[in-house]
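Protein Record: Sequence and Backbone Structure Tokens
======================================================
Tokens: labelled as protein backbone structure tokens, with as many entries as the chain has residues.
Question of interest: how does this chain fold, as expressed in backbone structure tokens?

___
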Amino acid sequence: MLFNYKALDEKGEDKTGNIEALNADIAISSLQRRGLIISQIKAVDGSSFLERKFSFFNRISNKDVVILSRQMATMFEAQVSALRVFQLIAGQTEKAALRNVLNEVASDIQGGSSISDALYKHPNVFSDFYVNMVRSGEESGQLDKTFLFLADHLDRSYEVSSKVKNALVYPVFVVFTFFTVMFLMFTMVIPKISAILVESGQSIPIYTKIIMGISNFLVSYGVFLIIVAVIGAFFFYRYSRTREGKISVDKAKLSIPYVSNLFRKLYLSRFSDNMNTMLLSGIPMVRGLELTSKVVGNEIYKQILERALESVKGGSSLSDSLDKESEIPGILIQMIKIGEETGELGNILKTLSNFYRREVVNAVDTVVGLIEPIMIVTLGLGVGILLSSVLIPIYNISSAM
């Protein structure tokens, strides 16, 4: 971290400059060893103008954490000290936000904190799952393997989530473009054609009158509709952030035909992968369920795992606890039961994780394959109805002349 300072030297002359240090205390100590009396010291924000104005450019993504975990795994494997690991990576990191976080972590470690405690202070970057995995690695003395586990786990999660998000980009773009074009047609093109049809004095078919009526309505109230839509979207967003709203939205996700199967497999993949990673790292079952319930990404499955957690605390096995839940498929429960009986639950969960991850990819491809022809047919019908409604009367007028 860079600091600007003002000071007095031994002769009482003013001195200004800058110094690189992990924190202000270290910077002051270094300057005092030079015989300077500090009058002012201030940290310099190393982020660019764009990063300061637009936080998007400075956001720490899952991809950044994956790369960071792989770098740390390599350095710990090479027997580099924890403090030096974070100092080196911070020095090589271009993203200001991540560099600041790593410098703060290094400063805490230098002050005597454990790595997990230092990471715990930055929940926006390192989740509870991540911190507990690191704590387990510290206790077992296998931090290099722990960070490799984390990097692989985050890489798998990022791959699946990005696959789902990217699959929705094309349909959303096409639907948005379609409604935009239709709105412009109804408000700018149809009114001019309607004026021609009315002036012709010819009888207008009922379907054309409907199109003209929609056009007149949008011309008169289109702006109000847009305002109402924006306000509605805002309040829906606010509602979806509440607990009741999250439950309603997550229930809807599990009720939509075809799409619900995709979401179910995504959540089951997260559950299996998280539990597999934590159990193989030595984290107890109860703590694993508690952490997985927080990161599964769906309120319905979170409640399922919370109920399973209470049941396991009461002495039940994981398979028996999940067997009561209708959202958990029988094959997963049977596989978990086999893993419990053979003592290979971690490896069984790893197999399930791989299976559901492949299922998510296949489900995404299936949904996208269904959406594309449905959209093409729907858009074709919409444009065809619109054009035929205005072109047929025009053709009749030209034929009568």
Residues 193 and 390 are 7 Å apart (CA to CA). The first strand starts at residue 2 and ends at 8. The chain has a mean pLDDT of 82.
